[in-house]
Amino acid sequence: MKPRDRRSPSSINSVRPTTSSKHHREIKAALSLEETKVLLFNKPFDVLCQFTDEGGRKTLKDFIDAPSVYAAGRLDRDSEGLLLLTNNGKLQAKLTTPQRHTFKTYWVQVEGDVSEIALEQLRQGVELKDGMTLPAQVRRIEPPVIWQRIPPVRERKSVADCWLEIKIREGRNRQVRRMTAHVGYPTLRLIRYAIGNYSLDINGQRLANGAYLELTPQQIEALWQ
User: What is the mean pLDDT of residues 25-49?
Assistant: First the structure.
C-alpha cells in the first residue's frame, strides 16, 4: 500500500503551459506552501506577458529573475500595471478561473469628457461583439499620481481627456478598451491597479513601475481563500 500523501493542499501536478516558443519554463510539481512563490509585478508599457520572444521585443525576462514563474492572467502589451506571477500551477488556475469573478480595478485615461450617460451605460453593461458585458463599477477620478509612460501618451491639445476607475469581473480580450470605445471615449492609457485584494500599493508604498515584490507565505495562503 502506498503511503498517504501528506503534502500541502497547494501541491500540484506538473504543468507545462502551451507555448509556441522552443523555450519552456516548467512549473514544478508538488509544491508546498513554503515552496510556492507569488510575485506582484508592475508591468511597464510595451512589455509582453511572457518570458521569451523571437521578435526581440521586451518580455518579463527583462525585469524578473525568479525561476519557473508564470503570469496568472494576462495584461496586454500596451497596458501597464499589476500582474501576478506564480510557480504553482494549481494556484495559477485558481486565480484565473472565470468562476471566481475576481474584481480587477483599472485606471483608465480616455479621450473626451465622459458624460454621466456613458458612465451609466458602462455600469449597466454594454453589448460588444462577443456579447453583453457584466455590470461594472465605474467612476470618474482625479488624474492619479503615477510614473511617466515611455513613450508618453499622444494627447490632442484640442480634445479634453479624463480618468476613470473601472472595476470588472470578467477577462475578455481587450475588454476595457472595447467598453470605453463602445460608449464613444477611446482609451488612451490603461493601468491595472488591483486584482482582488492586492494592488500596486502594498506594505504602505507604491510598487515602482518595472519592479516586483514577492509575497510572504501568509499572504500566499490568503490567496487560497
Answer: 85
